[in-house]
Amino acid sequence: NSSSRTETEDSGAPPPNPRSLLNEEEIRRSRVSRSNQSVYGIGADPLGIDMLYGSAQQGLVGIEDAADGEALESAYVVYDTGVHDIFDPAHAPFIPPLANLITQNDKCDPHGARPQIPAGILQLVTFLRPDGMIENFCNGICDAGDPFEIAGGNATPCDPLN
Q: Is the pTM of this model over 0.85?
């Protein structure tokens, strides 16, 4: 999921390329193949987009990590929706394979959950304002640790076992 904000110049027409980019995704999406998921990170590197502090993934090769509290004009943000526990064998049928395949059981698929996460909504609205910046509104890491980081503001993430 990407959003861009273009600023108008003196002519009133938008510039040909966006000046700011919010590139965000959810980890372990089952409806999107591995090769398509990697496009987000690959696109962040050549564009010089930093990883926002609070992202569920940090330390990716070629992508600088922003400091805690740093607001960015452009950023790459990864949300963990808390749906899949990779250490719980009962969750194995719901976790997408590492191969370029789409899982057959997509119950609680995080794809599309990010736009329902209150912290993500506030992040997008703040970014889209004139002179808006990308900020972390999660309580630290965006890991579904509290209702403000869970789709729909629910008390707990979707449980694929129920």
A: no
